[in-house]
Known about the structure:
Layout: H1 2-7, E1 13-14, H2 20-27, E2 31-32, H3 36-41, E3 45-48, H4 53-61, E4 75-78, H5 84-95, E5 100-103, E6 106-107, H6 109-115, E7 118-123, H7 126-139, E8 140-147, H8 151-179, H9 184-191, H10 199-209, H11 219-236, H12 241-255, H13 266-271
Amino acid sequence: MAANLIRAGFDLTVYNRTRAPVARLLSLGASSANSPAAVAGRSDLIITMVTDAVAMEQVALGPKGIIDGAREGMVVVDMSTISPGVTRKVAARLETRGVKMLDAPVSGGEQGAKEGTLTIMVGGPERAFESCLPVFRVLGKKVVRMGENGAGQLAKLANQILVASNMLGVCECLLFAKKAGLDLDKLIDSLSAGAASSWSLANLGPKAAHRDFAPGFKIALLQKDLRYVIETARASRVEIPATRLAHRLYAKLEAEGRGEEGTQALIDALERPGAS
């Protein structure tokens, strides 16, 4: 994503908690800084993308965090998938420094990030959203402001319900067809042209069928997102049985040390007796 912004002509100052990604971006023309605060000191717009809510609080509000280098009129765009509550907390703290924040999580996976075709779901002030549209349009093909701070994260959590449930359906379908003696490649080709088609079937179905578990999106990251989904659903008193089942099945794979595998590895957990 950062490389796409450089190619589009934006001047980037970059920081990462591990060094390898920074080295690649420096080779493309970016400058580096030694802390989030230092990035803030050189930037009008800051984009963060980290693993979870704890990391986002640290990068934004911790020692040498963004808030230490903040100045009035800056915009912070967090493209992580984190808790809506933490998003609102960080936004409120930054607001005390005159900084607007947008939560702008994405969907589309590694391929979408590389190709600049992500879907971006945004929460936050409308004026800040409009000012960031030139950046968003480099990174994604579908950009929608969902509402105020937290709305982007809520939309992403809704997205992850579909991701988990669709993957569950794809794997269940493939196991059913395999036991029935069908050719899975022919089946996927056929179903992908009809009402049962989905991104998961077309893109991850063949990998699941052939037990290719190289990650496009890792189990550990989806599980992190599903924990936020379950937490939010509990607070809202919403029943999400399919999501909870997927979460339990993925937990079995995580317990075996398989959190770095792709989400299509769900087929292994589902295949076992008593999987539900």
